[in-house]
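Contributing new records

If you add data, match the layout below exactly. Sequence lines come first and carry their own label; structure lines follow with theirs. Keep one chain per record. Anything else will be rejected by the validation script.
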Amino acid sequence: MDELDLKGNTALITGAASGIGRAIAELFAHHGAAVCAVDMDTAGVETVADRITRTGGTALAVAADVTRVTDCEDAVQAALKLGEGLQILVNNAGIIRRASVLETSERDWDRVMEVNVKSIYLMSRAAIPQMQKAARGAIINTSSGWGLVAGPRAAAYCASKGGVVQLTKAMAIDHGPEGIRVNCICPGDTDTPLLRQEARELGEPAEEFLKDAASRPLQRVGSPEEIAQAALFLASDASSFVTGAVLVVDGGGLAGG
């Protein structure tokens, strides 16, 4: 299990205040990484960092809007204060709008694309030069099962997550020769605040929505901690020959798709 040891690494994780991002931050810290937790939710991300430090880990909370160039650059500079260099970047920040093209306002379309895709471009552009200095690094982007197959009333979300898959592959090609691995995770329905937000947007009771989301071979939705385990694999030396990969973590939801 030494290959899963992240000691000596600094990990910057976006969307770290709750859900999958929180689980990744806490798991990476448990495995020895110094964690720079980034989110717009100042109180939430500070709570995550505090919980990590109280259990013996090293963490720093950074309040940032990852759709802004200066915020991304400042977050990377903050992460560099935790150790020597920046070895791991997890681009996890994301939002969803449940609407068809006709139902989606231009403002909502732009916001989904900014948070789900542009933020990866901006944060990676700020972080990669630090990884180039050491000729090593691991970038994990959070896509979605709906980045591979589409779903109803989620036009902007599906388009954005499909973009994440292709952006991941393009980055893997460009930066592989520099020792930087770039992969993405495609979670299925996971019990997070974002999934419960979907229920509200569709006007459905949360528990009924979660029950419907569990219709997959494993007959349940995932937990943030289960998605975090996949991120740990991709961040660690256990995946040293893996780049440009799309790892589906969905309880078998796409197996028959």
